[in-house]
Amino acid sequence: MDQTRLSLLALHFIPGIGDYIVKQLVSYCGSADRVFKTPKGKLQKIPGVGDVTAEAIAKGKPFADAEREWIKAEKEKAQLIFFTDKNYPSRMKQIQDSPTLLYVKGNIDFENPKAVAIVGTRKATDYGRVCVEHLVAGLHKHGALIISGLAYGIDIQAHKQALKNGLPTLGIMGSGIDIMYPPSHIETARKMMKHGGIATENRFGTKPDAHNFPARNRIIAGLCDVLVVVEAALKGGALITAEIANTYNKDVLAFPGNVDRSYSEGCNGLIKSNKANLITSVSDLEYIMNWSVEGKNPSKKEIVMLDRYEPDEQAILRLLMENKNPLTIDEIGWRSGVSIGKLASLLLNLEFKGVLSPMPGKLYKIVNV
Residue 14: which of 50, 70, 55 has the closest Cα? Predict the structure, then answer.
């Protein structure tokens, strides 16, 4: 049992400590191990910690709980992914309120180049189901990861259509990973394990209580490149997820609906208030996300001649060429050594030269390399 990871898990069993405080403690102390070895007086000086939290750490005995949770994870064949792990989803790393721990089951590639979240009402109509069916079928050629929440209605339709079209699909749960909700979706979840899976931030035994679902929605929004709302009332989880996605600078799309139907009001409202782009088919998504450039033979990659660029531009391009996945502007800055003040103009210039492509979530990649 890895002591460093056990210490990280133990932090989650100290009362009153949330994701933000866990990140603060590990950042200031250097590791989870050192948190438990740091004197109470020094803990109190960490921003956001305070007397109550420092006292809870000093007096807390979370390791027994952590060990039991670790054993449950092994028994359930669930993977624990901490925010400090290399395989923690890169799309979540730049989000301030991202979970510090994910429980994961299945065979999930969080770094799929294209990730689409599909959400909507639990009371889906035939119109909504057909919209999902056509959208997911159109995403087959992109090999996109389909993300949703395993709920009734639009969510489960998205997962089932992904399975039908051979696309990986990920269900984000509002309960512990050992408690499937609703139970009627267990069989679909089992099928998802082979080419995708399920994930949650909740510890084992957590019931699907109402307050867990808004928190679950931020994970759905954080893991995708684009969020598609299919049918939604004026209030509900789908609208919450759309609001969160907008705060994360993710692209949000919504299918329009009849003006006299309650489950079209949410989507129509998002479009009307410019909080979502209108979508009627997969071609709209491809256009907005710049995914329609599929004509070039991917085996014939263009070679970037670095000597054609300025030294700082070369540093940026070399970094992006060495990395398989797109990088955020912050990552490019500290890894290339180019100052943030200068970086924005350099990235824009490289984009104008056609060698750099911006992506949702303030990510950048080399074009065709």
Answer: 55
Give the whole-angstrom CA distance, residue 106 versus residue 109: 10
Taking the model in full, what pTM does it have?
0.78
Q: How far apart are CA 252 and CA 271, in angstroms?
A: 10
Per-residue pLDDT tens over the stretch 50-59: 888 888 888 7
Write the burial class of residue 51 (CB in 10 Å: 0-12 exposed, 13-18 middle, 19+ buried).
exposed
Q: Which fold has domain 105-289?
A: Rossmann fold (3.40.50)
Cα→Cα distances 15→58, 68, 234, Å: 12, 17, 35
Kindly list the domain boundaries of the chain, sorted by start residue: 3-76, 105-289, 306-366
Residue 84, classified by CB atoms within 10 Å of its CB into exposed (0-12), middle (13-18) or buried (19+), is middle
Strand ranges of the sheet holding 277-278, from the earlier edge strand across to the other edge:
79-82, 101-106, 196-200, 169-172, 145-148, 115-119, 226-229, 251-254, 277-278
Terminal-to-terminal C-alpha distance of the chain? 41
Spatial contact of 9 and 101, defined as CB atoms under 8 Å apart: yes
Backbone angles phi, psi at 193, to 5 degrees: -60, -30
For every residue of 182-209, DSSP letters joined together read SGGGHHHHHHHGGGEEEEESSPTT----
For 306-366, CATH gives 1.10.10.10
CB count within 10 Å of CB 290 equals: 11
Query: What CATH number does domain 3-76 carry, 3.40.50.970, 1.10.150.20, 3.50.50.60, 3.40.470.10?
Result: 1.10.150.20
Per-residue model confidence as pLDDT tens digits over 305-359:
677 788 888 888 888 887 767 888 878 887 777 877 788 888 888 887 778 888 7
In this predicted structure, the answer to whether residue 272 has a pLDDT above a threshold of 90 is: yes
